[in-house]
Amino acid sequence: MLLSLHIENYALIRESDISFGSGFVVITGETGAGKSILLGALGLLLGQRADTAVLADKERKCIVEAQFDIANLGFQPLFDEADVDYDDHLLLRREIAPSGKSRAFVNDTPVQLPFLRSLGTRLVDIHSQHQTLTLADSAFRFTLLDSMVSDGGECHPFAAYQAAYAKYYSLKRNLEALTSAEAQNRKEQDYLQFQFNELSEARLIPDEQQALEQESQLLAHAEAIREGLGEAASLLDNDSEQAILPCLRQAKNALSHIASFHPEADALLSRLDSALIELDDINSSLSSLADSVSYNPERQQQVDDRLALLYRLQKKHGVDSVDALIAIRDDLDARLQSISSLDARIHALMEQVDRAFAKAQSAADILTAARQAAGSRLAEGIIPVLHDLGMPEARFSVLLTPTQSYGPTGHDAVSFLFNANRGGELRDLAKVASGGELSRLMLAIKSLPTANCQLPTFIPTLIFDEIDTGVSGDISIAVGNIMCRMAEHMQVVAITHLPQIAARASQHLKVYKRVEDGADRTVSHIRQLTSDERLTEVAVMLSSDPPTPAALQTARELMEK
Is the whole-model pTM more than 0.85? Predict the structure, then answer.
């Protein structure tokens, strides 16, 4: 519940501190005194957009701060998710700088507005006469109806349907994506198959290109290579005086005669012998290579054709190696295999979709039945309240009609039917109810414990902003009695002009404005009234200021009741 509200430099309020008690709290004051300003300031704490236009003193920042008791409301997970320290005593603060910059704090921890809004929707429900239009909103009707559905101790029918529908919808989207992919792949299959066949028929071998390029060079220069090898071998060993090996053999013989007499000559002889052995081996290799090299035009054509094929495939696929072509071939093979398996995958997924849809249908039927029962309970609860509110002939019912398809809210369309007069036809609420009737109907709905206390998150504070406009006399007394009953299980704050309602409150706050001494502007104030001040205020609301003795007596009687 709301414990206190501190406001600085907001509109007509220079600085104000307000304490709120539990139960039924009323706020009264003349038109224009600043009652709605309080709601505007509170709205900032609940995450509404900030505007520097609310700054009375453009040189100072605006501060709005409120304290709430949130014990036993189950807010701990919400704080854990936002990584904000939890305390049963909640402190919200909002600051607006003259520059327009806004900051928000929860328990003195800076937070983003979305978190502040998420808290606000769970802390306070502000309802004004203009918000009766929400009765025509489909989302509101579903929320109200589903809040009154009994879950029988098991999973709530709406939660069960949501889970079943979410699974069905997810599978259906997957099926649509797979079917679309299949259609696209079928268009590409022939081209992919052609590319794969071309690469597969090429019988690609890793590192083949490098070996072929070397062989092509050898074949292209076979004659020159053979002549070069032969000439080199001839220079090493032939019958001419210029041949190297015969000369070296003669040098070896010459050294062998003196090696036994000269140690260094013996070492040179050993080195010369090693050189002869190496050169003999080189000569033999040159001869073998020369004999092995021959020009083969048929083989050269085969090699050139193979290289041309590899070069063409590489250019076509934008790569520069056989390994890259092999990777493309394998990828094409995998894609073709995937296309071939799509039919089986689609068929299996279709079966899953059918099973999920059947479960969603079953859950939707259960939800519809639960909503039918909840609609009857809603009408049974609202009609007596409407009678108390001065509409003795009013009738109200909930109509569920099946929709053409299943959606996030089920297979139902919800209509509220209403007629305030005897004998009239029940018609859509938005078409037949006046503004005053809508206000009383909304008050009746808000007064139902099942429509408030059984919501997934109980909202502990309900604020009515002049929802009693257009009612008077006995009806206003009934409105006050209803608000009193509501205040037995939640905090109810009512901004009102009706003395019959103000007299029923357990706490009475008065908003007034005045031009302060030495100031050139009007300032709003708010204070809690004592018992005697309450009596006078209610009497003033009944008559005039100062009140008449008769008004004082009537006010006393209203408060005693």
Answer: no
Beta bridge partners of 524: 513
Per DSSP, the residues of 453-509 read TTSSS---EEEEESTTTT--HHHHHHHHHHHHHHTTTSEEEEE-S-HHHHTT-SEEE
CA distance 388 to 205: 93
pLDDT in tens, 456-482: 445 788 888 877 766 777 888 888 888
In degrees, rounded to 5, the angle at the alpha carbon of residue 227 between the alpha carbons of residues 225 and 228 is 65
Residue with tokens 């021959």: 294
Torsion of CA 308, 314, 318, 323, to 10 degrees: -160
Residue 345 has pLDDT above 70, yes or no: yes
Six token digits for residue 510: 């008065």
Q: At a CB cut-off of 8 Å and minimum separation 6, what does 407 contact?
A: 165
- Measured distance CA(27)–CA(509) in Å, rounded: 5
Q: Give the pair of three-digit tokens for residue 256.
A: 């062998």
Angstrom CA distances, 526 to 17, 23, 93, 179, 204, stand at: 8, 19, 20, 66, 90
Count the Cβ atoms, other than its own, within 10 Å of residue 491: 23
Q: How far is CA 285 from CA 71, 236, 292, in A?
A: 99, 12, 10
Of the candidates 461, 459, 453, which has an alpha carbon nearest to the alpha carbon of residue 20? 461
Buried b (16+ CB within 10 A) or exposed e, 394-409: bbbbbebeeeeebeeb
| Helix 322-388 with 157-201: angle, nearest 10 deg | 170
Site of tokens 């010369």: 272
Q: What is the DSSP string of 434-460?
A: -HHHHHHHHHHHHH-HHHHTTSSS---
Return residue ranges of the chain for CATH 3.40.50.300.
2-148+389-528
Which ranges of 242-321 does DSSP label H, i.e. alpha helix? 244-258, 263-292, 297-317
Residue 254 CA: distances (Å) to CA of 23, 237, 266, 372: 132, 19, 11, 126
Its CATH architecture, for the domain 2-148+389-528, is 3-Layer(aba) Sandwich (3.40)
What tokens does 137 get?
A: 């909103």
pLDDT per position as a tens digit, 266-318: 788 888 888 888 888 887 777 777 666 666 677 778 878 888 888 898 899 99
Tell me how far apart the alpha carbons of residues 361 and 355 are, in angstroms, rounded to a whole number.
Answer: 10
Nearest residue to 511 (alpha-carbon basis) of 530, 525, 497: 525
Contact 94, 44 (CB under 8 A): yes
Residue type (1 letter), 178: L
**CA gap 74, 181 in Å, rounded:** 46
